[in-house]
Amino acid sequence: MAEVITQVEGRIGTITLNRPKALNALSLDMVRALSRALLDWQADPQVLAVAVRGTGKEGPFGAFCAGGDIRFFHQAAHAGDASLGDFFTEEYRLNHLVHTYSKPYIAFMDGIVMGGGMGISQGASALGRLPGAGGFAHEPMVRLEGKQWLKSSPRWKAASAPSL
Question: How far apart are CA 19 and CA 132, in angstroms?
Fold first, then answer.
């Protein structure tokens, strides 16, 4: 089963984090898959925006992301595995890509959102549900109401927003 599912629905690139037993904690392979999809879609004129969500929780969006894979970090550190350094280098590069992404990027944050989960949502044009106690919101943010969210995104002019 793929840990990251990417597809284009209409003109929206969708990313689903699909590692529910680990609360969608990011692995190095997931970071690489996310980066590939975002870079491909950034250059694709048919993709107008990107939406990312999680799986494994009841509700429309699933649990989002519990951060980096702590079990991997522990094992790699004890084994002297160089891929531990690769993980952080590539994950921070992914965070920068998200933060500077040229197209609207929508993060449906629901359930557990920590560490790397906050990182891959930090540049979002729109956020779904916000984390509860102890969480925080990033700017810019718009409320999601039906299909108006895309038209309200600060990265888009309302006239250029697609009809969904």
Answer: 22
In the chain, the domains with their CATH numbers are 4-160 (3.90.226.10)
Distance CA 91, CA 32 (A): 8
Using one digit for the tens of pLDDT, what is the confidence trace for 42-81? 999 999 999 999 998 776 667 899 999 999 999 999 999 9
Annotate 51-80 with three-state secondary structure.
EEECCCCCCCCCCCECCECHHHHHHHHHHC
Angle at 57 between CA 55 and CA 58, to 5 degrees: 120
Written as six digits, the tokens of 154 are 């600060």
Longest Cα–Cα distance in the chain: 54
- Which of 87, 149, 74, 147 lies closest to 116, judged by CA? 87
Q: In terms of residues, how long is the chain?
A: 164
Instruction: Encode pLDDT of 106-128 as tens digits.
Output: 988 877 888 888 888 876 665 55
pTM (predicted TM-score): 0.77
